[in-house]
Amino acid sequence: MKNTRSTGYLLMIFLIIFASNVERNAVEGIGPLAPAVAVGTAAITSFLLTSYDSIKCQFVECCTNSWIDANITGLSRSLNTRLHGQHLVIGATLKAVKAHVNNPDPKKALTLSFHGWTGGGKNYVSRMIADHLYVKGMQSRYVHLFISTLHFPHKSELETYKDQLRGWIKGNVSICPQQLFIFDEVDKMHESLIDTISSYLDYHKEINGVNYRKSIFLFLSNTAGNDISNAAFSHWQDGGKREDISFKKMEEIITLNSYNEKGGLWHSSLISKNLINAFIPFLPLERIHVKMCIKDDLLSKGHRHPSEELISSIADEMHYFPKEVKLYSTSGCKRVTEKVDYVMEEV
Questions:
Q1: What is the side-by-side order of every strand in the sheet holding 180-184?
Q2: Between helices 87-101 and 122-133, what is the axis angle to 10°?
Q3: What is the 3-state secondary structure (H, E, C) of 45-82?
Q4: What contacts 333, CB < 8 A, 6 or more positions away?
């Protein structure tokens, strides 16, 4: 592979030098044949540059199907086997992403808002989407992660952030329309900042010559986490099955809280203008789901056939609530990997 890559780079260099020399000679040509030579040279140069782009994209990530190739089957498999306790997330997310990427001319950018407590899987699902849409996953030049407290920390710089955000999105979509923008900690984002990009999420064919409709925007937030958990707990107390919790009911809870709760979506035009395709509820994870995460982590670290006793002992290291029944993990599956390392170090 290394020799093949080196050969490709050498060929690219040759094509560039050759095309440049031919073009320069044509420009410097004298006499009645010069125009004809120039026309022929332009065609040759165009061919060589096209060949250069074709070869380059074999080695460098480009905005082509070779690098951006939606694997919906793989995404479905990952969501159904690796994401535990989130049946509402799996169905809604898969349906929305599939419909968007399979549509050659979507009416707007896909915008999904993930809500729930820390550790429920919001970042996990975002990574899965990136991994199954782009060959390089989260490392793709077409995937962008913004963390509110890291990238937009100072309220005094709000207007600067707005200009930078608009410029970044416009610049990248101009290069390739199939971009993925992930905004984490939206609940900690300064109010009105996210509204800066609302026009990019609206039903516009294009804005100043740029088409944003093939891009995907994911908003990750803890907003409405308490209300989602309370609704899930009430459902459990009434004897209802977790799988019977209504998506519609949860989405109504999220929409109401997101619009009225202080944070990035507070009184946002994204909500009032219905620009968010779906509000996705991440339910609090029960002990049984934590144990599934523990088993996955043990297997990924080479511990084959972990015993139920071992898995339970690691699950005991986690904290649960309400205190009387200890039904839900306070941190979801977020601290599982460190707890696994802690317990296995003592074994």
A1: 143-147, 180-184, 216-221, 110-115, 278-281
A2: 30
A3: HHHHHHHHHHHHCCCCCCCCCCCECCCHHHHHHHHHHH
A4: 84, 119, 121, 285, 289, 290, 293
**Which of 315, 340, 343 is closest to 329 using CA atoms?**
315
Q: Distance between CA atoms of 112 and 316, rounded to whole angstroms?
A: 34
Lookup result for tokens 């780079």: 9
Burial 225-251 (b: 16+ CB within 10 A, else e): bebbbebbbebbeeeeebeebebeebb
pLDDT digits 0-9 by tens, 143-175: 999 999 999 999 999 999 999 999 999 999 999
Alpha-carbon gap, residue 114 to 125, rounded angstroms: 9
Residue 63 CA from chain centroid, whole number: 17
Q: What's the CA gap between 32 and 337, in Å, rounded?
A: 76
Q: For 288-317, how does the pLDDT look when each residue is reduced to its tens digit (9 = 90+)? A: 999 999 999 999 999 999 999 999 999 999
Q: Could you tell me the two tokens for 179?
A: 């971009």
